[in-house]
UniProtKB/TrEMBL annotation:
Keyword Zinc set for record: no
Name of the protein in its database record: Unannotated protein
Record keyword Chloroplast present: no
Coiled coil: none
Keywords, comma-separated and alphabetical: Membrane, Transmembrane, Transmembrane helix
Transmembrane region(s): 33-51, 71-91, 98-119, 125-147, 180-204
Length: 226
């Protein structure tokens, strides 16, 4: 029987699962669609945990929060509008969206909007810290689900890979540059930057890798996506 440590061992690549779609980014089975929707809803929920904790949000949510304060919109609305704007940046990069791209724009914004009003907003620091860690864990789990559906990247991931392909700059450096720019603009507009932001930056990569590892061991399929 595998130990907890073995189950949580991070995967090195994106695993192929029983719900991974084939070559088409638009034709999916009901199982794939269900996992995609579940993963995206959980992603928005995890982000909502960070917002309600009140001690720092992920960089893109910092931007959405700052825009919401500036223009008098809800954070769900600005998350949606930001995603649409980022998707438009795909055009000069010649990237093609998939079902996962479109659903990402719609479902994550809706889940964030709904769950912010349901989840608690603690004032005790210990409780806030716990809420941040729960949010990061949920985002990691969500990423392990929706990314393995293989039906097209989210708007931000597509921007990252598109810039990488056009400029030749390493993916990690491209992502870091994007995150720094987004975080700076969001902070200038009044977004909340704090220990939650730092913890997200430090822990989210490992959380996603661990989620991939769990998915890989639970899935009846073996192998990896190309």
């Amino acid at each position: 029987m595998a130990s907890i440590g073995q189950w949580l061992r991070p995967a090195l690549t994106v695993p192929k699962t029983s719900w991974s779609a084939g070559e088409s980014n638009w034709k999916v089975s009901p199982k794939t669609f269900f996992v995609l929707m579940l993963g995206l809803w959980l992603f928005g929920t995890g982000e909502a945990f960070l917002v309600d904790a009140g001690i720092g949000q992920s960089p893109w949510t910092v931007l959405a929060y700052g825009l919401a304060k500036t223009f008098g919109l809800t954070i769900g609305e600005t998350t949606f509008l930001t995603s649409v704007f980022v998707l438009l940046l795909w055009i000069p990069l010649k990237r093609r969206p998939g079902l996962g791209t479109v659903m990402n724009i719609l479902v994550v914004a809706l889940a964030l909007e709904v769950m912010i009003n349901i989840l608690p907003s603690p004032t005790n620091f210990a409780a806030q810290l716990i809420e941040v860690l729960i949010g990061i864990a949920i985002v990691g789990i969500a990423s392990g689900l929706y990314i393995t559906c293989n039906v097209g990247p989210g708007p931000r991931d597509g921007l990252m890979t598109g810039l990488n392909a056009r400029t030749g700059i390493r993916v990690g450096r491209v992502r870091l540059g994007i995150e720094v720019i987004v975080l700076t603009i969001g902070w200038a507009l009044g977004g909340i930057v704090g220990i939650g932001t730092l913890l997200f930056a430090v822990l989210i990569g490992q959380a996603v890798a661990m989620s991939f590892g769990v998915v890989e061991r639970l899935s009846p399929h073996t192998g990896h996506q190309d």
